[in-house]
Amino acid sequence: MDSDNEKQAVHEVERTVSEKHNDARIAEFTPQEQKRIIRRVDMRLVLTLGFLYMCSLMDRTNLGAANIAGLQSDSMSKGLSLTGYRYSLIVLVFFIPYVLFQPPATLLLRKVGPRIFLSAITVLWGGCMIGFGFVSKWDQMLGLRIILGVLEAGFFPGCAYLLSCWYTRYELQKRNAVFYLIGSMASAFSSILAYGLMQMDGLANLDGWRWIFIIQGLITCLFGIAGYFFIVDFPELAAKSWHFLDARETDFVVARIEHDRHDAIPEPFSLGAYLRNAADLKVWGFAALFGLTTTNTYAIAYFLPVILRVGMGFSIAKAQCLVAPPYVAAAIVMYGFAMLGDKYHVRGPIVAFNALLGLVGLPLLGYAKNNGVRYLGVFLATIACNANIPAVLTYQANNIRGQWKRALCSATLVGAGGIGGIVGSTVFRDQDSPKYGPGIMTTMIASGLVLIITGLLTLKFHRANKRADRGGKIIEGQVGFRYTL
């Protein structure tokens, strides 16, 4: 009986492959033409979203650069009164609306369309960022951070959802990696940019740290306006996008997605059906992975300049510039793993390896005596958590089906990432310098939990695939669908 079922499963896969090659919407294009179409999608979609994410990541994490540029020291003499817990509260409060507004924001993206929604919120939060340059009291900065959280809430899950709608399962990690790589480069070089902007101190009677917010906010507004002309909508609407795909090319893209996972066209929206997707345990497993990973990425993004300056004793100039090399290394490793993952259809082992890398790097950062060894720990820890962002995004996207489930998963995933941001933004405290023991221990625990949860998900998926091969329960409601391990 098992042999018959295995043969049936093989025939199902062969039939699907055969249908794909016989579909007229795909067959009318040569392989070279198909590649050219996908490259056009890459250029318009991945690069545009990546540059907007660069602005997003730069704007939400530039408090660390502004802090060592004089924000903290000027706060008492110039009325901000940024004392005690207030800086940590300003960092933290961003994530509360960022988490709460993600599910409705993702639904709004689907209704309004990515081009209008994503470009509009980018311009609005750029304006909010400019406002940071003119605050006179700490609670004004607190309020602006809340507004920033509301505006950015729909951006990252919207991008993750949109990318997953355009690509087949084993094309996606490379695209997620490039998207996130461009953003992480912002983390690498925004500190260098911030150091340059500090030199504007006194221009127009404004402090150097204020110019960091003003100029970066203006950059964001310009990118947001450009985004309106370059962001493309969902695949089934691509023919309506400005100077992009024609109707035949749009049909080709939709046909590819249909053959890959049969969910290219969204089913009618139902709130009950949408929320029922939350009963799937793996949705929360992926969310936990992402939240634990972002605990580390945010901790490093917010506090690495401070750790280098205070914890390791580097000058302001060196601390700002030494942030960049670990992020460059992370980008290289991130894309290398993405190539391997897409080529060999592997997801979980990559996530686990990166978690192990973090468990090596974080103790070096926290407990080594020599600054050179500690800086090596910075490299390993930065690589580990940043390379896992696209890996976890793709791990999730490969193992779910359905447009509205995909939208919910993107929201819960990135919402958990916001919770990780709350933890990551509070664990490195001034009183714990120069070793920052509690922060190092928290991030090590997060890496360990990533390793455990990935192991449990891999075991669950392996068993479900075996059961489906034997003719048992159909996975994700689609005959022939198998989990990617």
From TrEMBL:
SUPFAM superfamilies linked: MFS general substrate transporter
Membrane topology field: Multi-pass membrane protein
Major subcellular location class: membrane
Domain Major facilitator superfamily (MFS) profile per the UniProt entry, residue ranges: 45-466
Keywords per UniProt: Membrane, Transmembrane, Transmembrane helix, Transport
GO cellular component assignments: membrane
Pfam families according to UniProt: MFS_1
Regions that span the bilayer: 45-65, 85-109, 116-136, 142-166, 178-197, 209-231, 283-304, 316-338, 350-368, 374-395, 407-428, 440-459
InterPro entries: MFS, MFS_dom, MFS_trans_sf
Subcellular location: Membrane
Keyword Cell cycle tagged: no
GO molecular function list: transmembrane transporter activity
PANTHER family: MAJOR FACILITATOR SUPERFAMILY (MFS) PROFILE DOMAIN-CONTAINING PROTEIN-RELATED, PERMEASE-RELATED
Protein name as it appears in the record: Putative transporter
Record organism: Lachnellula suecica
Organism ancestry: Eukaryota, Fungi, Dikarya, Ascomycota, Pezizomycotina
